[in-house]
Specification:
The structure is a single chain. The protein is an alpha+beta fold. It has a single domain, classed as Alpha-Beta Plaits (2-Layer Sandwich), CATH 3.30.70. The chain has two helices and three strands, in the order βαββα. Strands 1-3-2 form a three-stranded antiparallel beta sheet, with helices on one face.
């Protein structure tokens, strides 16, 4: 299982977290998404996950993944 870490500084509320979770959950291969609103950390776990697809999903949710932690 792969694990990818991202920083998403634009997330500020539960709605933001929900939008990111929803979009990431639709990415092929994603089995689990962890979001920490306080630290702005997003961890995506799964098999055969495309980093580009994860970044695109975060963008689709209206946010920018500015760095991979």
């Amino acid at each position: 299982m792969n694990e990818l870490h991202f920083q998403v500084p634009g997330m500020t509320c539960g709605h933001c977290e929900s939008a990111v979770r929803k979009e990431l959950g639709a990415v092929p291969g994603v089995a689990d998404v962890s979001v920490d609103l306080d630290t702005k950390d997003v961890v995506v776990r799964g098999t055969g996950i495309s980093t580009a697809a994860v970044i695109a999903a975060i963008d689709e949710a209206g946010f920018e993944a500015v760095g991979i932690a």
